[in-house]
């Protein structure tokens, strides 16, 4: 691994440790200082000891170190997701071609992943199948992961609709509910909220209400501040859906749900607004049918 010291410094400072606190009892303080300046090497055993002190797994460190040494990869996902939400298929095709060429040149898995992501998004707009070999690669990847990084959260966020549902909920619960075995370097707060909402939508629309209630409880627990208006509004939206589902006070449930959709529209999250409006209308039809029986 290249420039290990740069990544160690980044992690140490983000965790609020001094160089002395990190190195004490593991390596000499002055020696460690030179490691952070990429002037000294470090053995694998000593590196693992330092990472344990920082509460970072070796898998996560390897991933973050790769990002530090290939900073161009950091924002590569953004234009792909932007093109998808804007339904710009031609841009997705251009990006797909670019990543295919990059992968052929570099054999870098990140380039391969972004190529697969472009292929997946294109398949949602055109009458083309998403190749099974791509899906198999994603499944094999998750089978090998024991500690989830920011990158793994993004992969699940990208492919949750395509992966087997039970597997998706299993990984999600391990990431966020049971052990929270994922990196401290999470998605941005807004994107994390949207990911939770996507998972909640998946659970509710597939009538996996037990999962939906667990995710809803997590959102209510995690997001309570003045800056969390989107999460709070969408919590009330799903409270509304569960009220409608119970058929106890349908009008109140619809009012709560409509307010949640309004917040999405105010935030210019039009894709998500449509997604949740369709969800509401589907539930209203379901309740209406059940009342007429």
TrEMBL record:
Record PROSITE patterns: HTH_CROC1
Single GO molecular function: DNA binding
Domain of life of the organism encoding this protein: Bacteria
Residues in HTH cro/C1-type domain copies: 8-61
Protein's UniProt name: Transcriptional activator, Rgg/GadR/MutR family, C-terminal domain-containing protein
